Amino acid sequence: MDNKSDYFKQRDENNILKIRELRLELPSFCSQFFMGIENQTTSLTRLSYARDLKIFFDFLVTNTQEFYGKKVADLTLEDLNKVTSTHLEMFLDYLTVYKVGKQTFRNGLKGKGRKLSSVRALLKYFFKKEKLDSNVGSKVDTPKYRESEIVRLEVDEVVKLLNMSEDGNGLTTMQKGFHKHTKERDFALLSLFLGTGIRISECVGLNVDDIDFENNAFTITRKGGSRVILYFSDEVKDALLKWVEVRNQIKDLPKTEKALFISLQNKRMNVRTVEKLVKKYAGCVTPLKHITPHKLRSTYGTNLYRETNDIYVVASVLGHKDVNTTRKHYAAISEDIRREASTKVKLRKE
Predict the structure, then answer these.
(1) Which CATH superfamily includes the segment(s) 155-341?
(2) What is the per-residue DSSP string for 200-233?
(3) Which of 112, 168, 242, 314 has its CA 20 to 30 A from that of 324?
């Protein structure tokens, strides 16, 4: 197995196995759908589709007169051809709050939109294959939701966050106990997030040999599996070098472990662990903001736009396929623009 992509290969394999398990609970025609879209989608996307379709078909057989009492696994393409736009609208209403056993699930407009998109993908696929009379998914509007305002750290908050991860001041006694074992790692990880804007999956998937200290460069695996070279500043380089030096001195670290960032259990950190790490430090620095690794990415994107004033540079570095996604970072600094504009018009000349 290629050490430079072992994490992502393993993640894809796990996703594929989960998809196969879920397919056993879906109508048999779904297998054709997943095979048909395999080369155009990632395993994460297909897993999301499988989970959403399971919810949709469970809804059909428990909450509609036409399909009530049928078994999901017994549904056929003839049944799928009977699905109407009204059924899809009922499904959106159902998603607001529903129960599976004793567990209650809720969806906002964004969650409803994503699940509708999964069902649409299935219907569109079989319509193109001429297995359905019409593409009913196109007849239902996507729920409109207001984009939430981008939350980011201000310049002084970035300084406080990094200082705390480096010296531990402000942490609880218990947190300080762990901090003495992880401070170089935590400081390097946060510096990398704030200095490059990488995604959490890209960070977790990094191996030691992905880093090129001579050129201040590193290779990451983007969404979809493409390998991209990014660059970091000398500040980030210094933080990474200190951590790598500490990492190399860990006695019980297996020689087969290639991960750049490792846990106290001497294995690759996972997404949840990194999320908790960011939450710990950010919660002390700015308790009123819900700061996640993605918010650190937004902080970098906003700061990069401020420095370059070039939305396409930001899009390229962050790996956005659609520049409209990047424009959110521009919107995030509209307050700065409005504040500056307020000083431009003089009511009375001095």
Answers:
(1) Intergrase catalytic core (1.10.443.10)
(2) HHHHHT-BGGGEETTTTEEEEE-GGG-EEEEE--
(3) 112
Cα angle 325-330-331, degrees, rounded to a multiple of 5: 90
Q: Identify which of 326, 199, 328, 332 has the alpha carbon closest to the alpha carbon of residue 275.
A: 199
177-212 pLDDT tens trace: 999 999 999 999 999 999 999 999 999 999 999 999
Strand ordering across the sheet containing 227-231: 211-212, 217-221, 227-231
> What's the whole-model pTM score?
0.80
Q: Please, how many CA atoms are within 13 Å of residue 172, restricted to the half-sphere of its CB?
A: 5
Confidence of residue 111 (pLDDT cuts 50, 70, 90): very high
Partners of 229 in beta bridges: 219
- Over the stretch 302-316, which tens digit does the pLDDT of each residue have? 888 888 888 888 888
Helix, strand, or coil here: 180?
A: helix
Residue closest to 318 by CA, chosen among 175, 220, 239, 245: 220
Q: Write out the E strands in 25-74.
A: none
| Per-residue confidence band for 3, with pLDDT thresholds at 50, 70 and 90 | very low
Domain ranges of the chain: 3-139, 155-341
Find the radius of gyration of the CA atoms of the chain.
24
